[in-house]
Structures are given as C-alpha cells and as structure tokens.
From TrEMBL:
Residues 96-249 form the JmjC domain. The lineage of its organism: Bacteria, Pseudomonadati, Pseudomonadota, Gammaproteobacteria, Thiotrichales. This is JmjC domain-containing protein. Pfam families: JmjC_2 (PF08007).
Length: 300
C-alpha cells in the first residue's frame, strides 16, 4: 500500500518541499508532466476510471454549470444520472467534496496539509471536474491553493499574475460583481478581461498544475477532460487571531455580556473599559498563546 500513497512529494514534481514553499509564498504556478506512476494510488481507484464510474457510485447531487456563465456562481445541483446526460450534451459538471467517497482521501489531504505547514483549521477537499471538449471555466481567481491532476483528456489552462490584489480572501470572476468585503480592501479596479500577459499550460493525463491563491486562471478542454483537484483553503492570520481571541475572551463573564449601548453611544464606557483591558493584555501575547487554541498538534 505504501507505494500507492499520495503525499506532498507526489504533487510537487521535481521540486523539494523548500522549493515548493518558495513557489507557494511567491504565488508562482508550476506544472509537472508524466506523473502517472507516482499518482497510481489515485488514478487506479476504480471509481475514478471514468465519469460514468464516478456517477455510478455517487450518492449525492452533481453540480452542472450554466454554459452562459461557465462558473460555479451559476450552477444547478442535479442527480448524477442527469448530470452525466448534461455532460454528454456539452455541460461542465462538478463532483464536490469527493473526499467523502473514501477515508483515504481525507488521510492524504491531512498528510499533505501538515507537510505544507497549513493550519489545522484549513478547509481541505477534493473535486472532480468533467469538462466536454471546447468548454471551460470563465476567467477568475480563487482564495484557495489548488493542485490539479489531469485524469483524462487534454485541457488548456491560462494563468496570469494578479496585479490588482494580493492575498484575496474571496474569489472573483471577471465581469461579475465584486464581493463587498473584497471590494473594501482592494484599491484598484479589477480588469474587465483576462490579462494578456498570461502563460498557457496544456494538461494531459499524469500532468499536475499548481494554481496558487489569487492567480487569475481560465480553462478550455481540448478533448473531453476529467481532472481531480486537491484544494486547500488555509486560514489567514486574521482567522487564527480572531478564532483564538474569541476563545480567550469567552472565558470572561464581562466580555460575554450582551452588548447594550449606554447613553454615551459610540463612546461606550463599558466597551472602552474592556478594550483598555484587552490592549494591556495584548502586550504580553505571543504566537504560542494563539496557536495553542487553533492547533492541537505540538508547535515546532
Ligand atoms: Fe478556479
């Protein structure tokens, strides 16, 4: 069994872990071809043999993208046999949270998460996209990191640097309304079309593409194409700080009080006292105090 395990090494081609982390932190994509042997543990799973085999054992709905939008923001969730029919008639379909199929996936996901150094609060999942020839995804970026494994067929990807915003906390599709929080910390306007300065990648069975968080991408299948994603959405420092702070403050009866504004309104006396106490405490905080709340594992 050990030679068929999927781990970080299976996903990063010729890169060492350190080289991969440098790419990840600098938001640099990479592609690696000819990994069929090292991905055998994944690709030889019977239910990943074909879209039909996956649909056969799928006990949930499947997402079908609206061809006009070509993105998950406009989709219908329908039974697998209907989704297969839609796929055969030219619609992109998505099997969400494929990790529910076998515990092996969650074990691999968590091992890879730990190897990368992502927090225990990371949302990890696997997705299978089936894209008919000539179809693909509208230009967008995601807030997560993706390893795309091509299982079947040929698919073109175009990737471009995001010069509008670094470290976005939500995804954005070109030509669609901007999420209000994303808009609030993005000073520049988002482009109205895919950046011309982009790189084309052609994925074939055994290819792996690493798509870092925030990088613009769009796709088009050359032939009918099936891909398997390892998708990691790690918490930001904001998430870790606010999660741990909430846990710490919850031990205080005063902080747990229902917020009722006194006559001084925004200059609320009681809240000011709590904040003054918090800022005095904050001087003594360090990472360990916060991470002991969010991470159960031993901090190195
Ligand atoms: Fe995406």
């Amino acid at each position: 069994m050990s030679n068929t395990e999927i781990n970080l090494k299976s996903l990063i081609g010729d890169n060492t872990r350190e080289e991969f982390l440098t790419l990840l932190k600098s938001r640099t994509p990479f592609v690696s071809h000819g990994n069929s042997e090292s991905l055998k543990g994944l690709t030889s799973l019977p239910f990943l043999n074909s879209v039909e085999d996956l649909a056969d054992c799928w006990r949930d709905t499947v997402d079908v993208f609206n061809p006009e939008v070509a993105d998950e923001i406009s989709k219908a969730s329908i039974p697998p046999e209907d989704a297969l029919h839609e796929y055969q008639y030219g619609s992109c379909i998505l099997f969400n949270d494929v990790n529910r199929i076998t515990p092996e996936f969650d074990r691999w996901n968590q091992d890879i998460r730990r190897e990368i150094g992502f927090s225990e609060l990371t949302y990890v999942r696997n997705l299978v996209y089936a894209t008919p020839a000539g179809k693909g995804n509208a230009p967008h970026f995601d807030q997560n990191f993706n390893f795309v494994i091509q299982l079947e067929g040929t698919k073109k990807w175009w990737l471009a640097d995001n010069t509008t915003i670094n470290n976005p906390m939500t995804r954005h599709v070109i030509g669609h309304p901007v999420d209000s929080e994303l808009g609030s910390y993005t000073a520049k306007d988002f482009p109205e079309s895919f950046p011309k300065d982009c790189t084309e990648y052609i994925l074939e069975p055994g290819s792996i593409l690493f798509v870092p968080r925030g990088v613009w991408h769009m796709t088009e299948a050359v032939t009918d194409a099936v891909s398997f994603n390892f998708t990691f959405t790690p918490p930001t420092w904001i998430d870790l700080a606010t999660t741990a702070l909430r846990e710490k403050l919850s031990h205080s009866e005063k902080w747990r009080e229902s917020a009722i504004f006194d006559d001084s309104g925004a200059d609320n006396t009681e809240f000011n006292q709590l904040l003054n106490g918090l800022s005095a405490d904050a001087k003594n905080w360090n990472a360990e105090d916060f991470l002991e709340v969010t991470e159960n594992q031993e901090i190195q």
